[in-house]
Amino acid sequence: MDEVGIEKAIILTGERGKAFDAIYERYSRYPDRIEVWCGLDYTGYDKPGFGVAAVRELERCYKLGARGVGELSDKGKGLFYSKPTKAWGMHLDDARMDPRLEKCAELEMPVNIHVADPRRMYEPMDASNDGLMNAYKWRLDNQPGIVGHEGMVEILDRAVK
Predict the structure, then answer these.
(1) Would 146 be classed as within a structural domain?
(2) DSSP 3-state of 151
(3) CA-CA distances (angstroms) from residue 113 to 21, 27, 48, 133?
(4) Could you tell me the CATH number of the domain that includes residue 58?
(5) pTM given for the model
(6) Among 77, 98, 144, 149, which has the highest number of CB atoms less than 10 A from its own CB?
(7) What are the tens digits of pLDDT across the range 89-104?
(8) C-alpha closest to that of 67 among 24, 99, 26
(9) Which domain holds residue 97?
């Protein structure tokens, strides 16, 4: 890190539980140089009472040493870039996310959020939009029920408020 002028690195693990603990164990010996962030657990997001265990796990990760959350990702299908549970259809502005985001604020944990992809990925590919460097299989314009680019920006605005 010194050789290339990096003062501090942040590891966006997206993990909780034992997976987070193992990563934290490995890098916590460098607290002045490396910060380890945890993920959020969406287990049971589609069931009543969702969230209590997830907030407890967030608090546990914080007490262990997590100083942020990330990376949360939603490209229009919901928070499904997560494991073990993909939260299809649940976006950042969903009321079910409020307890987690409020706990992050209370603990002063920043949240790294990847919202949407470039606009061209939501538009039909044709002579004026070839998807540029993205693979054809990653396109979003042909997927049913997906929130478009502008909708994703609005979701982010609502969640931040």
Answers:
(1) no
(2) helix
(3) 22, 22, 25, 22
(4) 3.20.20.140
(5) 0.86
(6) 149
(7) 999 999 999 999 999 9
(8) 24
(9) 2-116
